[in-house]
Amino acid sequence: MRDVEATLADALGSEATLSKSTVSRVCEAIKTEFDVWKKRDLSDIALEYLYLDGSHFRYHDGARAEPVLAAWGLTSEGRPVLVGLEPGSSESTDAWRSFLDGMVGRGLRAPLLVISDGAPGLIAAVELVFPHSLRQRCLIHRARNILAKVPTEHQCEVKAAFWGIFDGIEAPSGDAAVALARNRAVAFERRYGAMFPAAVECLMADFSSLATYLRFPIGHHARIRHSNFIERTFGETRRRVKVIGRLPGERTCLGLVWAVLDRASRGWRGVVMTPIAVRQLQELRRQLLGPQPAEATSNLTAETVSPAA
Asked: Which end of the chain is more exposed for a tag (fewer CB within 10 A), N or C?
């Protein structure tokens, strides 16, 4: 109710106070809009970066909290867009694969990079549905995993050393930047391997997925190396739900989560697509996914027109 009133306050002033019945009608309209949104065609959304995450909500009587799966991304124009939202009985491979297959079935093209946490079911589903896309493991999630294996009195030091691996990479994007980060990780391993072996193992176990973002345009690095900004939005949603205890049902839960995410996504920052960045992304797409439709058509035309013509 506070959100609805705040939205109308500028236009209606003191008349913005609404009855519960009016708010109920507004919420029902939101659910209807969500039903249309979740079935929309996605073929006109050209993503370069796809973010995936889930958050748990309680919306069935006597049941544990269940995940809501979310997908959002950055388009070829650098614009942020909320792509998909769906309930899941778990964050299993099957649940994530069904979610991703549904979006692909509505026209979503394969992204260049998928950014997520390290949930095994999610990773397995991404590799099945987008086998040629690169994968970036959220650095913020990984930092938390590592610090959980370090005594409290040493966490500030180890945290600074962890971010020192990835911050201030001055090498050009690509193999050189990845190699520099890996060299720093090896130095981290030498420094802390004897003191905190579990933390070091956590860093090195899947290090390649932590440094994938370094293959992309430098101006995009700060936005594509973690998925933290949707976590903050999910946190806002959970704060609203906390006063309720349990949502009335799945449809109500999804409507509320979608309304909050949709509103928040309008304030998400995108990335700047400079000519250099565009060329880098196009080259990566050719390497990973082959010639694109427009490019293939152009090549075919060039081959079929004779030099004399």
From this structure: C
